[in-house]
Design a protein that fits this description.
single chain; Alpha-Beta Plaits; 2 strands; about 50% helix; binds iron/sulfur cluster
C-alpha cells in the first residue's frame, strides 16, 4: 500500500509532514513520494484533518472474466438501446413542436447513457480490456464499410499498438 494525497482537499496545514517517519509527504510537487512511502503505515491518513490522504493498493487483482451469456445479454441490451436512440433522434428531427423535439432529444440522451452503461458492464468501455482489443481486431479483420467513408485502417492499427 502507498499513500496518495488529494490536492483538492489538502488545506496545506502540514500535519502530515510531522507524522510521516520517512519524509514522504514533504515534497515540492504536493504529491506523496512513492519511493519514500515504504510501508503505507497510514499515520498521515489518520492525522490529516481534511481527509485528503488515502492509501491505494500497489497491485490490483485481475478483473474476473464475465460469463459469456451475461456479456452477450449486455451487448444485446447496448445494441437495442442504440437502435432506440436512433429512433428518438429521428423523432426529434421530425417533431411538430419545439417541446416535442426537446422531449425526444432528452429521451435520446437518456438512451445513449443506458447504451454506454451496457457497454461498460460488458467490458467495452475500458480501452485496455481484452473485449475492446478483440472488438478492434474484429473490426480490422472485417473492415466494415460506412457509406461514403474510408475505413480508418491506419488509425485502428495505431490504436491497437498502443493498447
Ligand atoms: S495533513 Fe492533510 S490537509 Fe494537511 S498538508 Fe497534509 S494532506 Fe494537506
Ligand atoms: S503512509 Fe506512512 S510512510 Fe507513507 S506517506 Fe503516510 S506517514 Fe509517510
Amino acid at each position: 500500500m502507498h499513500a496518495v494525497r488529494n490536492l483538492r482537499l489538502c488545506t496545506k496545514d502540514c500535519v502530515c509532514l510531522f507524522v510521516c517517519p520517512t519524509g514522504a509527504t514533504d515534497t515540492e510537487t504536493g504529491q506523496i513520494d512513492f519511493e519514500k512511502c515504504l510501508d503505507g503505515c497510514r499515520r498521515c491518513v489518520d492525522a490529516c484533518p481534511s481527509h485528503a490522504i488515502s492509501l491505494v493498493m500497489d497491485n490490483y487483482p485481475a478483473r474476473p472474466a464475465k460469463d459469456k451469456a451475461v456479456a452477450d445479454a449486455l451487448l444485446n441490451f447496448m445494441e437495442q438501446k442504440h437502435r432506440e436512440e436512433a429512433l428518438a433522434k429521428a423523432l426529434a428531427a421530425s417533431a411538430s413542436t419545439p417541446a416535442r423535439a426537446k422531449v425526444a432529444k432528452a429521451l435520446a440522451a437518456s438512451l445513449r447513457i443506458l447504451a454506454e452503461d451496457g457497454a461498460r458492464e460488458a467490458g467495452y468501455m475500458i480501452p485496455q480490456s481484452t473485449e475492446s482489443k478483440a472488438f478492434l481486431e474484429k473490426l480490422l479483420a472485417q473492415r466494415p464499410s460506412v457509406a461514403g467513408k474510408q475505413f480508418p485502417e491506419a488509425e485502428l492499427k495505431e490504436l491497437l499498438s498502443l493498447l
